Amino acid sequence: MTRVRVAGGGLTHFGVHPERTSRALFGEAGEAALEDAGVDREDVESVFFGNFMGELAEHQGHMGPLAAEALGIDAPSTRYESACASSGVAVRQAVQNVRNGEADVVLVGGAERMNNLPTAETTDALAIAADDLYEVRAGMTFPGAYALMEDAYFEEHGGTREDLAHIAVKNHQNALGNEYAQFQKEIDVETAMEAPPVAEPIHLYDACPITDGAAAMVLVSDSYAEEHDLDAPIAITGTGQGSDRLALQDRDELTRTPAAEDAGAEAFEDAGIDPDDVDLAEVHDCFTIAEALAIEALGFFEPGEGIAAARRGETTATGDLPVNLSGGLKAKGHPVGATGASQVVEMAKLLAGTHHNSDAVADATVGVTHNAGGTVASTAVHVLEVVE
Ligand SMILES: CC(=O)SCCNC(=O)CCNC(=O)[C@H](O)C(C)(C)COP(=O)(O)OP(=O)(O)OC[C@H]1O[C@@H](n2cnc3c(N)ncnc32)[C@H](O)[C@@H]1OP(=O)(O)O
């Protein structure tokens, strides 16, 4: 099987850019990725584009071909939609395309424009990633759904809002110096605790913001990298995907995320590693409780220990397992369709030593990304390794 390397990656600034279309955002990220990779756009054989709420947030038209058009690429171009995991799933499809020998060079990424609508309309648009028929119509929003999961976690395992505030503080700290991050401001536990409520027990600093942005990367086969003498020391060695029941009411328990457990197990087996081999992770912290659930689902911590790990500082930049050194969705921002791809771009840079936080993980060789859709109804997990 062909090994897949990350030849280069590009990001736009994640933030409030309502005047920019998804097409323009993806064009910028894609150009940056091509330049970083040193790959000719004529060599790109397929484009994989993640986007969630395009039709609801803007009138751009058929987003699949538009992604390639934005970059002047003359190749098949497809949009992938899996809610907040859209570009994580697109990365998986792109990896498989190269592994199967169907292409030597692909461009994959995603974009989302969210701030051109008022927050209430964006909240409604996001909610279609949940069970629109039975739960959203009864008033459930995403902050509301994760609030239910947080309540269930506290009831089953104990823990407090203050424990989770450590995750927000850590991720804001990690984003300091990340020029692409929406928030580059330090906060303390007290600030997080005193912030206004969004959906109890979730308060402002437990939530990711609403973000416009794009991410892209060029993936190449081992043989293409060798023939073109590319400097591409990072490979995607494992990929996994899982799904769960959409409605919270149909799940056996709200304190576990089986889609992420399945995706993680598949990706680890694919890469031939164990959770113990992982040096750092970028996980889907759309709400602080989601980070705790993610690091448990991936097998880094026992059920009920994710929140304690944050309190004990085990997931900080200097901890045993640094999590979300980019700033995570919490501070870097969450342009839904771009998030999964952005995690892979950030992870490749962290491992290659070209990220602002690379020094914190100078000896790291194995990183994992975890991108969740909806209330973790879908998840894509990737393993990245330094292969030289
Ligand atoms: C699987 C999944 O990924 S599900 C997740 C999908 N995404 C979401 O659900 C988005 C969740 N976030 C939100 O809905 C919104 O950001 C909210 C409700 C938390 C806040 O929205 P609003 O109340 O409209 O905030 P608004 O945009 O007016 O900003 C007010 C202030 O708070 C700040 N702010 C907004 N959101 C956040 C945040 N999440 N964290 C920290 N600060 C924030 C703004 O920068 C602004 O600061 P300023 O006054 O200094 O300029």
Point out poorly predicted stretches. none
Helicity level: 25-40%
Name the assembly state.
single chain
Count of individual domains: 2
List ligands, each type once.
acetyl coenzyme *A
CATH architecture of the largest domain: 3-Layer(aba) Sandwich
Structural class: alpha/beta
Write the CATH fold name of the largest domain.
Peroxisomal Thiolase, Chain A, domain 1
Total helical segments? 15
Give the CATH level 1 class of the largest domain. Alpha Beta
Q: Please write the string of helix (H) and strand (E) elements.
A: EHEHHEHEHHHHHEEEHEHEHHHHEE
The share of residues in extended strands comes to 15-25%
Q: Explain this structure to me?
A:
- The protein is an alpha/beta fold and 388 residues long.
- It folds into two domains: 4-117 and 210-235, 3-Layer(aba) Sandwich (Peroxisomal Thiolase, Chain A, domain 1), CATH 3.40.47.10; 119-209 and 239-383, Thiolase/Chalcone synthase (Peroxisomal Thiolase, Chain A, domain 1), CATH 3.40.47.10.
- It is built from 15 helices and eleven strands.
- The strands form two sheets. A nine-stranded mixed β-sheet has the order 3-2-4-7-1-8-11-10-9, sandwiched between helices. A two-stranded antiparallel sheet has the order 5-6.
- Strand 10 and strand 11 (378-386) form a beta hairpin.
- Helix 8 crosses helix 12 (288-297).
- Residues 84, 119, 123, 126, 142-143, 198, 204-205, 207-210, 286, 334, 372-374 line the site of acetyl coenzyme *A (ACO).
- Acetyl coenzyme *A is lined by residues 84, 119, 123, 126, 142-143, 198, 204-205, 207-210, 286, 334, 372-374.
